[in-house]
Amino acid sequence: MTAAVGRRILSTGMAIADVDTTTLATLVEPKRLKQQGFPAPKRVSVILGTDHTGAEAYHVYLVFPDETSDDALAWNKVKAMVRSVQDRIWSEDGHQRWPYVRVVRESELLESCPHAASES
Amino acid sequence: MPRLSLELLSQAQVLARREPRRPKDASLRRSISGTYYALFHYLAEECTRLIVGAAHHRAPFRQFAARALVHAKMKSVCEEFAKPMPKHDLLKPFWPTLQVANNPDVRTLAKNFIELQEQRHAADYDSSRRFTRHEANTAADQAQEAMDAWDQLKAQHGDLALLFALSLMLWPGLSGR
Prior knowledge:
heterodimer, A: 120 residues, alpha+beta, 4-stranded mixed sheet, two-stranded antiparallel sheet, 4 helices, 6 strands, globular, B: 177 residues, mainly alpha, 8 helices, 0% strand
């Protein structure tokens, strides 16, 4: 996986897309998720990179505190939030780059995706 | 559920729970990889049953047809089915007639397949990643949810299930047209 953050102009076939991961992250920031009734993560990271096929993709991390229980992070508890975040970014991007959304604890983020740990 | 898929998913769930205190990285990786293949083989069997026929004597033909599936192309198809309107012209006429964009089951199936395939690739090839039991359990839940969504789709929207199955099978040939 490769990754980059911030603002970039990308040529995607015929279209030119202005990718701003900071703006995307703002659309799904913790306080907005809380307003929608979801368990608010501590922070949200949106990173532009690629997936295993080489296609450009977003890697979105919903970062929860380390003390969050497994039960609270179970798929049936976080599914609605994950899908809401995914749909928002997928739609905002014009359905071009798939948003892979993962729910992680803070310490897990360091191990599973070090470059995401320092981004907002 | 086809026997192989059932066994792969059960095995994945066992691997995810195997070491109660500190799960081994290898156990979690094999769990996640096996979970993806449970869904892959499930779709291969279900799609070929729809297209080739479900009779026992058709099994060799189903197995033959299943070899046409290409993982990356299946992911591309799933992305199309997750869109309100597909990018590919050949699919566009079906969206309004089969109400593809409004069908939650096909969207669940498509999204979960894409995510499990990415996880499987990381589990099998990315040695820098560390996996958690939570991720392995989530993967198994997503695979089961995708299979349930397919069952619902097939029971309630047969034409849409057939379109999805045909697209998965034929996309290697159709996607460039």
